[in-house]
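Internal tracking record. Fields below are filled automatically when a chain is submitted to the structure queue. Please do not edit lines marked as system-generated. If the sequence contains nonstandard residues, flag them in the REMARKS field before resubmitting.
Queue: standard
Priority: normal
Entity type: single polypeptide chain
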Amino acid sequence: MVTRYEVKLLHRRQVAEHTMEFTLEKPGGFEYRAGQFGDLVLPAGSGLDESHAKHGFSFVSAPFEDTLRMATRMRESSAFKQAAARLPEGSRVALLALWGSFTLHKNTRTPALFLTGGIGITPVRSIICQALHEDSGHEISLIYSNRSPEQAAYHAELQQLSREHPRFHYLPVFTASQGHVSAQTLREHGGDIARSICYLSGPMGMVKDMRALLVEAGADEDHIRTEEFEGY
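SYSTEM-GENERATED OUTPUT FOLLOWS
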């Protein structure tokens, strides 16, 4: 069921090079599962017509947190993103929710491997933070690829979480200096891939390439779950 919420844009901030995070107030009683997403609808004053004023975003915030956060890679060619960047803090926006089944599996005896790059980190950050907050017991590995540390959203936070939680293993890969993620990278740093539920998120082309790498590294194709982003 789709529900419309009228919420306030509290603030926005740059969380990585060319990546903007938007913080919204959380409506009373609003519940969602980590990894799900909603549509952000800009007001009429944004200058966009109705057909261009809506865009879907995963929640980067975790359900236990007090606000809702969404993040996106900014592009000059996107009228929606440019309008969102100009929207004054305190403006009222609409949120249409709730969709998505890209959520953490229940069986804590089965490891989780997250493989993503760039803006694909948004639902992953939500899932991992919620699991660690709940002390769920899952063994979680994250391999996160970006061209440089400056382009890696939430990199410092993920490093800190990996230091604080022995069950969370984080490998950042910076392709400008280290090269691209390979099947060998996955075999060495992805935990028990053959047993793991593997999660891929990001633009369609990246998800397709990463799926092939996972299979090459020994993942069970039936255990690969994906969330493909549109508009990138």
